[in-house]
Amino acid sequence: MQEETRSTPLRLGSIAPNFQAETTIGPIDFHEWVGNNWAILFSHPEDYTPVCTTELAALAKYEPEFTKRNVKLIGLSANDIESHDGWINDIAEIAGCALTFPVIGDKDRQIAYAYDMSVDFLSPLCPSPTQAAHFRHKLTCPNRLDHQDTTNVDARGIAYTIRSVFIIDPNKVIRLIQSYPASTGRNTAELLRVLDSLLATDKHSINTPVNWEPGDDVVVPSHIADEDARARFPNMQVVKPYLRFTPLAKESFTSI
């Protein structure tokens, strides 16, 4: 498995690091696999665990909705492919549908390191898995481990991947980063909502307000002057000079 070295922290607008990896559908080059699609790369702490099982079961059910939006899903944990394959059978039974998106076997945590999903056991301050094990309880290495859950480690004391989410656009630019503690499952419907917001804002040059759902009014960005805004958004309503709403029809890709 190969990955690009992480030189600076990943931020919104960073290019998603490329990597080659073994997955449940075979070897991939990540950027080639994404192609001209959007992608959601998400990590889970461990196979055969309750919260992770519910998450992947939900994603398996929702996958057709992501596909409608030209979004590819790909999971990751520090388990091997054999473990993933067995667990996926359980998930299919629980979800009532097949899990068809790939799951990466990142047993050596190289990709987790590149994406800052786990303890920095490759950093100069913590150069080896052996040394990382000594920090099982002290947690003094720089990391993105959930500090409230010191049990989120394997038998060697090395941190599992946390629940990270990266939404990546067709240009391989990171558009969203989320991190959840091991105890808290993600909201799959919220991932779809954020995707719909990103797709709408890219297409229509608008912003989406709090609790926005497809079909709701959207916000006209502040940098658009009133004259230009009225020409572009003839149904615009001005609440304050800095707060302007306009209707936006629900796109066909947002049907659930």
TrEMBL record:
<comment type="function">
    <text>Thiol-specific peroxidase that catalyzes the reduction of hydrogen peroxide and organic hydroperoxides to water and alcohols, respectively.</text>
</comment>
<dbReference type="InterPro" id="IPR000866">
    <property type="entry name" value="AhpC/TSA"/>
</dbReference>
<dbReference type="InterPro" id="IPR036249">
    <property type="entry name" value="Thioredoxin-like_sf"/>
</dbReference>
<dbReference type="GO" id="GO:0034599">
    <property type="term" value="P:cellular response to oxidative stress"/>
</dbReference>
<dbReference type="InterPro" id="IPR045020">
    <property type="entry name" value="PRX_1cys"/>
</dbReference>
<dbReference type="GO" id="GO:0051920">
    <property type="term" value="F:peroxiredoxin activity"/>
</dbReference>
<dbReference type="GO" id="GO:0005739">
    <property type="term" value="C:mitochondrion"/>
</dbReference>
<dbReference type="InterPro" id="IPR013766">
    <property type="entry name" value="Thioredoxin_domain"/>
</dbReference>
<dbReference type="GO" id="GO:0005829">
    <property type="term" value="C:cytosol"/>
</dbReference>
<keyword id="KW-0575">Peroxidase</keyword>
<dbReference type="Pfam" id="PF00578">
    <property type="entry name" value="AhpC-TSA"/>
</dbReference>
<dbReference type="GO" id="GO:0045454">
    <property type="term" value="P:cell redox homeostasis"/>
</dbReference>
<comment type="similarity">
    <text>Belongs to the peroxiredoxin family. Prx6 subfamily.</text>
</comment>
<feature type="domain" description="Thioredoxin">
    <location>
        <begin position="10"/>
        <end position="200"/>
    </location>
</feature>
<feature type="active site" description="Cysteine sulfenic acid (-SOH) intermediate; for peroxidase activity">
    <location>
        <position position="52"/>
    </location>
</feature>
<protein>
    <recommendedName>
        <fullName>Thioredoxin domain-containing protein</fullName>
    </recommendedName>
</protein>
<dbReference type="InterPro" id="IPR024706">
    <property type="entry name" value="Peroxiredoxin_AhpC-typ"/>
</dbReference>
<dbReference type="Pfam" id="PF10417">
    <property type="entry name" value="1-cysPrx_C"/>
</dbReference>
<keyword id="KW-0560">Oxidoreductase</keyword>
<keyword id="KW-0049">Antioxidant</keyword>
<keyword id="KW-0676">Redox-active center</keyword>
<dbReference type="InterPro" id="IPR019479">
    <property type="entry name" value="Peroxiredoxin_C"/>
</dbReference>
